[in-house]
Design brief:
Helix content is about 10%, strand content about 40%. By secondary structure, the protein is mainly β. The chain is built from 12 helices and 63 strands. Helix 2 (about 360-375) runs parallel beside helix 3 and helix 4 runs parallel beside helix 5.
């Protein structure tokens, strides 16, 4: 495909997608000396063109400066743009977020491969450069690592080439067009092209040069492409290394030596490569007994390929990491190095809230460490090949990878959830075969040497057909060492052979079990599950519990890793996190881009607490005699960790032991532990923790890998007596007062509630308690229409009517009981009784008597406000991060502290957050340490949410900056709150056992006391 006259017709021609592009090749580095190769650092034979470029923006092709590429065109008056970077995040045009529909939906009536001539922004880039001294007289190439979505290149007024595919490199030979001195590079980038029909991923729609651009040269004889393949014997002990090389330059005079070194730099085996008739140089090296690569211990060798000329001079050295591992299907089960694998994975978009997909090395390092620290072992590159550095990090740190080609055509076959593939592409349209296959080839050729990649993926959500089946067969032919994944055949079983595994999205646990119990012919993975939108990831345990139940259940990949939101300024100049629609982008899918277990600013969200626990490979099951350790690792024992046992009484640590344990992979052991006698009455908690002995690449010494706990009670032998103190009860016409030394508790018959808790002259009640049946809807709640189904509880929370007030006096106590009816049903009765004790503490008992034919309750609680100065919280509850009844496996019972504002979690749309289950006590104090304590019996703990906003304030805000100024601390004490769910965010309800039926009786109690 060679031409010299560029045409805009290429933008809509499926047969033109690469003009004068250098063939795809491996992403290896190469050096001119052995010392440089040993260091494996920056390449002297590369020269970065990143930085400031001259730039012009046009909203449509007709408005672009057509002749800008000409050598005498003056672009001095143009503005500047940073490369790499997105056009839309640097003041030109606007970003747009859509999920499944194409971004032009509703604006233009288009069918593939057509694009709009009047709605296709064009970025014209100009960069001047001088050829580096060490490249003079040598061939010079240019590499664009990522340009979205199509671009033309000129050098010194001469057309160089054209490329589509936003997420794999496009490289061109500049040598014929170079001038002495300054050279003028011109690049014309189009946001939309034929490729746009193939890039309908669930992400922000950007354009521009968003990955690195660099010049490179090559020695006189150069390893153009390298393919390393490892083989293991039947015992997975002895290894063989097969090497294929493609050379360029004076290859007839070449000789090639190879040395394989271990992780300590010691030579393992050496050899030479020989040329074949096909022009490929090959070598086979017997490495004998080898250390294997896996995610638990990613052992890497390094192969050095030395290229010599006829005179014996060393021209080039290629250092290539090598991981010996075998990934295969055995009896319908995927195995790594002979062991059944379970993917504890996540889908990951490349994203940074200020840079979009132009992420940095620092971003990637943070990501890989965070994944390792939280027990994730796998990542799917949803839905495009990532930067090469990411695969290097996965090799070195140890993550299993599904490498996904840049393909999604969701809007061509699924509309608002309905499957309608009448104009699906690529389907069986063979005219699309080459442009689709090019994406597969570009990915495989670049990424093939990374041991972390176990599976090639035929893109995402593009339905099914002959074109994609052909791609999967290409993967198998080009690289038999890996398996092939594709979920789309779920919708069209005629092409079931496209995927080597049964892969589904958002299948419910029961549906997964139906498949696994129905004579399955393939292993099962969820390529997407646990839609982590907003406050989510409830019920995840129902999936991870399948891991040991079914051999063919092999895990899944949470959707997804990081919130895709962009920093924007509000009308007052304050930054906030913006989602779809905030840039006046229409069409849009609004906040559907906020699905991360990590916030956009790379802070771990509370959801990660649950993920880390449920993804533990090593389970700790303590009891009063010791701890059972179940090591589900495939390869690694517990030698790198120490076992820390702590015994707590009522939240305070009273004993600690540290010991070394050796529990081999795929085994279990019971470790006896001698604890002090539990003689004192109270609640005891045994905490067991596995912690790193020494720092690793991904975590510091002391990092906790796994934990487990065991709770037990020692009953009080003597019943607790009531607090002493005289009470003075005053029943007025409107108010009831209960007074004692240094306190005054007031109730209003008129308001129908407690109105004052005054300790030592300090009023604690800023707004009186009221029964609460509504929570600020989560994204999942909205997805399954909780507001439509249960919205009457919103009204019930605001429209109760007090029908009765009763004062009861007994020795040492006074009780005021309020009864409420609700407008939604004459049969529902809510009772709240406040019993004032002699020391001024108030025992609160709330009871709900339900009725039939009412929707499920979101929450049954009592909520009140205290002054905002009382913001410091000291908990003894399940924590430390927020948790819910269906997302509490990762929480632990203990003491922890935060402030009320911390309990408004960073979910991009304000919603219910910050809840704690299992609350035994929480103190709410001011800066002086004064305030109140909420406490409940260990046998009947409550749930608490203490934050600056009410459920209704949160419900009314679409962004955090829309929330009101803080005036109060809102205290919500619940007997029960429904779970948050997470099977999906567009209709999957919370699982039944985590709902609250309205036709039952509910009751809870707690104590308010002074601090």
């Amino acid at each position: 495909m060679t031409t010299t006259k560029p045409s805009l017709d290429w933008l809509t021609d499926v047969s033109v997608f690469a003009v004068n592009r250098v063939p795809a090749h491996s992403d290896h580095r190469y050096y001119e000396t052995a010392a440089e190769a040993e260091a494996d650092g920056g390449m002297k034979l590369r020269y970065s063109l990143n930085g400031s470029w001259k730039f012009n923006y046009a909203v449509r092709p007709a408005d672009r400066p057509v002749a800008f590429y000409e050598q005498n065109f003056n672009s001095d008056s143009w503005g500047a743009i940073e490369v790499p970077g997105h056009i839309q995040l640097q003041g030109f045009g606007k970003p747009q977020y859509v999920n499944t529909m194409y971004p032009w939906d509703g604006h233009h009536e288009l069918r593939p491969p057509a694009i709009s001539e009047n709605d296709n922004p064009v970025g014209s880039y100009v960069k001047h450069f001088n050829v580096p001294q060490n490249m003079l007289g040598k061939p010079v190439y240019i590499s664009f690592q990522g340009v979205e979505s199509a671009f033309y290149v000129w050098l010194n007024g001469k057309f160089v080439g054209y490329s589509e595919d936003s997420f794999t490199p496009a490289e061109f030979d500049l040598t014929p067009y170079l001038l002495e001195g300054e050279n003028r590079l011109a690049v014309e980038v189009y946001q939309r092209s034929t490729g746009s029909w193939l890039e309908d991923q669930d992400f922000w729609r950007f354009s521009g040069i968003f990955r690195d651009v660099y010049l490179y040269t090559v020695p006189a004889i150069h390893v153009r492409d390298l393919f390393v393949k490892t083989e293991l014997d039947a015992a997975y002990k002895q290894g063989k290394l097969l090497v294929d090389l493609k050379l360029s330059g004076a290859v007839d005079s070449a000789s090639i030596k190879l040395v394989l070194k271990d992780a300590d730099g010691q030579a393992v085996v050496a050899g030479a490569a020989e040329a074949t008739e096909a022009g490929v140089w090959t070598a086979s090296l017997d490495a004998r007994a080898v250390s294997l690569w896996n995610a638990e211990n990613p052992y890497l060798y390094k192969l050095y390929v030395e290229v010599y000329n006829a005179a014996g001079e060393l021209l080039e050295v290629v250092p290539q990491r090598v991981g010996f591992r075998k990934f295969e299907m055995i009896d319908k089960v995927m195995h790594i190095n002979g062991k059944r694998i379970v993917f504890k994975g996540v889908n990951r978009h490349e994203f940074n809230p200020r840079r979009g997909r132009a992420i940095t090395a620092g971003d990637m390092l943070w990501d890989i460490k965070t994944m390792k620290q939280n027990n994730l072992n796998a990542v799917r590159t949803s839905h495009y090949p990532n930067q090469s550095l990411w695969y290097e990090l996965c090799d070195v740190y140890g993550l299993y990878v599904i490498d996904e080609m840049n393909l999604e055509t969701h809007g061509s076959w699924q509309k608002m959830g309905a499957v309608e593939p009448s104009w699906n592409v690529p389907a069986n349209k063979l005219e699309w075969q080459d442009i689709v296959m090019d994406r597969a080839i570009s990915m495989v050729e670049r990424d093939k040497n990374h041991p972390s990649i176990l599976i090639w993926s035929v893109g995402n959500e593009a339905y099914a057909g002959e074109v994609l089946l052909n791609v999967s067969n290409y993967f198998r032919s080009a690289d038999p060492s890996r398996l092939v994944h594709y979920e789309g055949v779920f919708h069209n079983r005629d092409y079931d052979a496209t995927s080597d595994m049964e892969s589904r999205m958002y299948a419910k646990p029961a549906d997964i079990e139906l498949y696994l119990n129905d004579n399955p012919q393939k292993p099962y993975i969820s390529c997407e599950y646990m839609h982590a939108m907003g406050n989510s990831v409830g019920g995840m345990h129902k999936y991870t519990e399948l891991e040991q139940k079914y051999a063919l259940y092999q895990g899944g990949f949470i959707w997804d890793y990081i919130d895709q939101v962009i920093v924007k300024k509000d009308r007052f100049g304050k930054e906030f996190l913006a989602y779809g629609g905030d840039f006046d982008d229409r069409a849009t899918d609004y906040n559907f881009c906020t699905n991360g277990i990590v916030y956009a600013d790379r802070k771990v969200s509370p959801k990660m607490q649950e993920v880390k626990f449920l993804y533990q490979n090593i389970k700790l099951l303590p009891d009063r005699e010791g701890v059972k350790i179940v090591n589900e690792n495939l390869f690694e024992g517990t030698d790198a960790y120490e076992l820390v046992i702590k015994l707590h009484l009522e939240g305070a640590e009273i004993f600690r032991s540290v010991s070394e344990v050796q529990v081999a992979a795929q085994s279990e052991a019971y470790i006896p532990v001698v604890l002090p006698a539990a003689e004192q009455a109270g609640e005891y908690v045994i905490h067991a923790s596995l912690q790193l002995k020494a720092s690793t690449l991904w975590a510091d010494a002391g990092h906790e890998l796994s934990f487990g706990q065991f709770v037990f009670l020692v009953e009080q032998k003597v019943a607790a007596s009531l607090p002493a103190g005289e009470l003075r009860v005053v029943e007025g016409d409107v108010n009831i007062g209960v007074h004692g030394r240094d306190f005054s508790i007031m109730f209003s018959k008129q308001a129908g509630t407690l109105t004052s808790v005054n300790y030592s002259g300090k009023e604690m009640i800023a707004l009186p308690p009221a029964p609460l049946f509504w929570r600020a809807t989560t994204d999942n709640d909205k997805g399954f229409s909780l507001g439509f189904d249960s919205g009457i509880w919103f009204a019930a929370s605001l429209t109760r009517k007090c029908i009765n007030v009763v004062l009861t006096e007994q020795e040492g106590t006074a009780t005021v009981t309020f009864q409420y009816r609700l407008s939604i049903s004459a049969d529902v009765l809510v009772t709240v009784a406040y019993t004032v004790l002699g020391d001024g503490s108030v025992q609160v008992k709330s009871r709900y008597e339900g009725a039939a034919n009412l929707p499920k309750l979101p929450i049954f609680a009592l909520s009140f406000k205290v002054p905002a100065d009382y913001q410091h919280l000291d908990w003894y509850a399940m924590g430390p991060d927020e948790n819910y009844i269906d997302r509490a496996f990762g929480a632990r019972l203990g003491e922890f502290q935060n402030v009320a504002a911390d309990n408004v979690s960073g979910y991009v749309v304000p919603q219910e957050s910050g809840n704690r289950t299992g609350v035994r006590r929480v103190s709410i104090t001011n800066d002086l340490g004064r305030g109140i304590r909420i406490s409940a019996p260990a046998t009947q703990p409550v749930e608490c949410n203490i934050a600056p906003y009410t459920a209704f304030e949160l419900e009314s805000a679409q962004h955090h900056h829309e929330l009101p100024n803080v005036h109060y601390t809102v205290v919500t004490v619940a007997g029960r709150q429904m779970g948050v769910g997470g099977d999906d965010s567009w209709g999957a309800p919370v699982h039944d056992e985590y709902l609250i039926p309205a036709d039952q009786e509910l009751a809870f109690e707690f104590l308010i006391s002074r601090v």
